[in-house]
Structure formats: structure tokens, C-alpha cells
Amino acid sequence: MPKNLICLCLLIGLNTNALPNEKQSVSLNLNNGGKFDVLYHRAESAATGIVLAGLIGYGIEEGIRGGKDGKKKDQLLSYISDPSCKNIFLSSLAEKLKKEGYDVSNSQSSENVKAGHDKLSLNIKINSCGFKLVNTDSKQVSAFIDFKTILYDGNKNPVKQKYIFFGKTKTPFEELLQSKLSIEKEFSSVLKKAGKRLANKIVYRKK
Amino acid sequence: MKRIILLVSILVIQACAFTDATLQVQHDEFSNFKGPIVEVNPLLFSSPALVDNRDDIDRIGWKKNGFGMQTADITTANPVVDIVSDSIRAGLIQNGHSVVDSSRVSILGSVDRFWFESDMNFWTVEFTGDIQCRLIFVDNNTKEEIYKSDYSGSYSEKSGGGLNKTWQRVMGKAVDNMVEDVMFDEELVEALSSLID
To answer: Which of A26, A169, B42, B98 is deepest in the core (most CB within 10 A)?
Structure first.
């Protein structure tokens, strides 16, 4: 084997050994920040309205339910200092990824995110967050966040996933209102949990 | 003739709403459950011994008619505690741990919710599966509880409609997400890592 070729092989070998110490970069692209919402009456079936009066009946019933949910939303918002879906969620995601050794960058545009790139790119679309009726029998609500992701990791087919995370605590709406302090705690806790979980989904995707 | 066919179809559909549905719910064996718990040195766990602590143990959801009225039960072929226990066992094994009779860590607890909900909108129906359980991890060497937590898994999808197969898929995905909730619990990882040989 020629000496030059041996040197080249050694160099490649040295570079390959150095790879595990390099930080893997990941670009986070937020396509939609979502909005705080309360899905209580709208989480109950609107079937009666549909059957009784078709599209108009459905529209009327949904309008009424939306109005009632709006009142509940206003009640909860007065106890939440930061009702944004994205702030706590994204900072928890980025913090966890950094802790795991990733170099995190944010991108406002999804134009540069295409399949086949070596760099990891994660498109995030938050649909909504807030509180949702999770048990129509016991009328318990829970904090939630609902989002979709597309992960481009160099493979031809990006990985598309949708998530809905609920808080650990389930309480009737009136009890939640009375607890006051736990409203913000429950809300921020579910956003943090979702951010961490999404980060771990990236970290453990190939392990 | 067309009217008769239409009438028969309507009667068949209405009749379906009044018969109970039994779903074959289970985790997806091809799901990737690998999470932070894989970092813990391989441990011997006992198969989770869970009790059924649901408010309604007779069903996992209601079949509903066009008015949203509850018409029949939706149940599972296997007991819900077995479904949850089997799925947690699969998750632990996938993460490099073993589930054996003579174990280091016992898993006790309860299934608190295993519920399927359908919400009819004008064009679509939203199907939601929600599973909650409480797990208590006990060190068999000291007989002390080392960690306790509530876990949950939810999944929902909107479609033009769906019957048993769709409902099974929704509940199966909720089970997968519940297993993921356990395998991704970093506080559990800390508790298990602190076990001394």
C-alpha cells in the first residue's frame, strides 16, 4: 500500500475518532405558536345540534359552546402570567437538548429545511394549549398542549408525529378555579413536560 | 328497490349502535419505547401487579347514536390491567431490562382510567383514547418504596367516521403513549439508578 494512502487512512481514522466529541446541531423551526384555549363545552358532543338542524344547528350549537368556553378561558387567564404556548415549551425543549450535548439554533423560516440535509431540523406546529375537558362523565379538566412535528434527520422520509400531552392532575373546572395558584403551575408543568419529552424523542430516536 | 336498500342499511347501522363492541386492545410491538430508562444498568423487574381502580369497570367507553346518546358498551377482550401490565413489561424489555419472577424491583399500582371517547362534529368525529395508571416501584432487597408516580397516555384522531378497527387503533396508540410516559420518566431513572447492589 502506498505511504500516502496509509497516511490518508490514518487521518480519516483520527477524524472519525474525533466525531463523538462534536456537538450535533439541531435547528428548531416554529411554524405556528398556537393559542391558549379552554376546550370544555366544545369537547362535549355537538351531535344533538347536527341531528336536529343539520349544518345550521351545528353552527349554532358550536357558537354557543364557543361563547361559554370563552368565558371559562377569561376566568383562567387572570391567573396565568404567561399564557403563551411556545415560551416555556420551547425553552424546555432547547434546554434539554443542550444538556444532552446538542447545538440548538432557532430558525423562523422552514425554507431551508429539506430532506437530505445532514443537520437535524425540527418543524413544530403548536395547535393549542390550555385546559381541556378530559372526562365527560366526571367533568374533570386537565392542562394540555397539542402539537405536530416533522423531524428531518437526513433520511429521505421525514418523521411526522402528533402529540397531545395532558397534565397529571385532573380536577373539575370549579375546583381548579378555586385552587387559583395551581392553575399556572399545572399549565406551565405540562408545557415543560412536553418540551422535555420532545427533546428525549430526538435524543433516543436511534438508540 | 333503492328505498328498501336504504331502509335496510339505516336499520343495520342503527342496530349496530345497540350492540356492544369488544376491542382487541394492545400495545404495538413494533413501537420504539426506548427512552432515558435504557441508561439504567439492566435490572430485574417483576411483572406489574396492578389493580383495576377505574370509576367504571364495566366498560371502556360508550357507543353513541346520532344524537350523542349512549346506546351500548365498548369493552376490551382482555382485562385492562393485563393490557397495561403487558405493555409496561414490553417497554422494560425493549430498554434492556428483564421481567422475571425473582426480581430486584417490584411494580405495584393501579389502572385509574382506560377510556375511549367519541365526539361528533359536523363533518368529522374525533376519537380519543386516554389511559392513566399509578405505578409504585419497590426495592425487594429493602422492601422499601423507591418511587411512585402517575402516568398517562392519550391519543386522538379526527376522521370522517370509524368503527371497531379505528377505535382499537386509537386505544392501542394511547397504550403506546402511556408506556412511553413511563420509559421517559427521568425521575424514575434517577430512583432506579440510585439502587445499590
So the answer is: A26
Residues with Cβ < 8 Å from B169, sequence gap 6 or more?
A: none
Q: Which residues of A touch B121 (CB under 8 A)?
A: 46, 50, 58
Judging contacts by C-beta atoms under 8 Å, the chain B residues touching residue A51 are 66-67
Q: Does A168 touch chain B (CB under 8 A)?
A: yes
pLDDT tens for B126-158 read: 888 989 999 999 999 999 999 999 898 988 888
Separation CA A134–CA A140 (nearest Å): 6
H-run or E-run covering A75: helix A47-77
Q: Is A6 on the interface with B (CB under 8 A)?
A: no
Please name the residue that has the C-alpha cell 411483572: B47
Predicted pLDDT at A115: 46
A31: contact with B, CB 8 A cutoff: no
- Tell me the angle at which helices B164-183 and B80-94 cross, rounded to the nearest 10 degrees: 50
Residue ranges and CATH numbers for the domains of chain A are: 24-41+81-203 (3.30.160.150)
Which residues of chain A fall short of a pLDDT of 50? 5-20, 46-50, 110-112, 115-116, 207
**Which residues, including other chains, have CB under 8 Å from residue B9's CB and lie 6 or more apart?**
none
What residues in B contact A43, CB-CB < 8 Å? 119
For strand A120-135 and strand A140-152, is the pairing parallel, antiparallel, or unpaired?
antiparallel
Return d(Cα A188, Cα A84) in angstroms, integer.
10
Distance from CA of A2 to the nearest CA of B (A): 44
Name all domains of chain B by residue range, CATH numbers in brackets.
2-193 (3.40.50.10610)
pTM: 0.76
Contact with chain B for residue A64, Cβ under 8 A:
no
Interval A64-108: pLDDT, tens: 777 788 999 999 999 999 999 999 999 999 999 999 999 999 875
Is some CB atom of chain B closer than 8 A to the CB atom of A155? Answer: no
Terminal CA-to-CA distance of chain B, rounded, Å? Answer: 77
Cβ-nearest to A45 among B55, B113, B120? B120
Residue A3's pLDDT is what? 54
